[in-house]
Amino acid sequence: VATVSASAYTFALDTIAVGPQYASYGCPVTDWQSYTPTISTPSGSVTNYSSSAKYRRVGDSMEINGIITFSSTSAAFTGIVVSVPSGFTIDSNKAISFRFGSGTVLDAGVALYPLEVIQNTTTTVILYIENVTGTYGSDNNITNTAPITFNTNDSISFIFTVPITGWYRDWE
What is the Cα Rg of the chain in Å? Predict the structure, then answer.
């Protein structure tokens, strides 16, 4: 009100909406977005491959679904480490388990081998091949020759969910 006179008032109005209001309920789920994960190893170097993945937000976590496809025989390596998208950090304080997901090694046209996705650092996970040949199951590093000798059209697929630092279950 610009004046105290009873006959002249000036009103300033801000943020007026006419029509239905948008209200956000529940946990946030975003559309899938593509990214190229960085593939590294604790020893050696993976070669002759391409990698692609997609990620999305689901509440306070990120779901990642990806594949590594070989075009030829790889150089020697031990272990497969996969990065989360750049700029995001795995929140280890929210993690109840160090196992975040699963996957499959495909020996093209021959066989499938199950794998587990385990936390490696706050920005990477490591893929372990499941080994159930003994009395108790154990996990082993994937290598260029285990569980298969990686060659043309062989692949490693994975899907996992990790809690992300700074994300919460509800919209912020």
Answer: 24
